[in-house]
């Protein structure tokens, strides 16, 4: 049975280095057979929108949009904080592949199961 690995990301273009690494690590976790999920909150929810990550490129890493697409294609799940999403008036019809808007109860479930979690 695979282990569980969780990543919490609160950044997007406001800290593209953290945003990028926050998808490098979960791709590696998926590659090693971990049940991997990313939770986007605060500014990180902006990454749930198609096209937002297209111009984020950190030297030494694949482009963020590519990392995110690979994560979704490999079966990774991206949870998007509903209150943070609504506060920023983002478009539910413009979600990237693998993204699901979730409420606070999902966040509690996300962290309360004893999973390993890293935050960026």
Could you characterize the architecture of this molecule?
This protein is an alpha/beta fold and 120 residues long. It has a single domain (4-119), classed as DsrEFH-like (Hypothetical Protein Ychn, Chain: A), CATH 3.40.1260. It has helices at residues 16-31, 64-73, 82-87, 104-112, and strands at 4-9, 35-40, 77-81, 99-102, 116-119. It has a five-stranded parallel sheet with strand order 4-3-2-1-5. Helix 3 (82-87) links the parallel strand 3 and strand 4. The chain is globular. The N and C termini lie far apart (27 Å). The model has no long low-confidence stretch (mean pLDDT 94).
- For the CA atoms, what is the radius of gyration? 13 Å
CATH architecture: 3-Layer(aba) Sandwich
Hey, roughly how much beta strand do the residues contain?
15-25%
CATH level-four homologous superfamily name: DsrEFH-like
| Strand order within the widest beta sheet | 4-3-2-1-5
Helix content: 25-40%
Task: Write the CATH fold name.
Answer: Hypothetical Protein Ychn, Chain: A
The mean pLDDT is 94
Q: What's the end-to-end separation, in Å?
A: 27 Å
Class in CATH? Alpha Beta
Q: Please give the domain count.
A: 1
Largest sheet: 5 strands, parallel
Contiguous helical run count: 4
Shape: globular
From the helix content, strand content and strand pairing, which structural class follows? Answer: alpha/beta
Could you give the count of β-strands?
Answer: 5
- SSE topology string: EHEHEHEHE
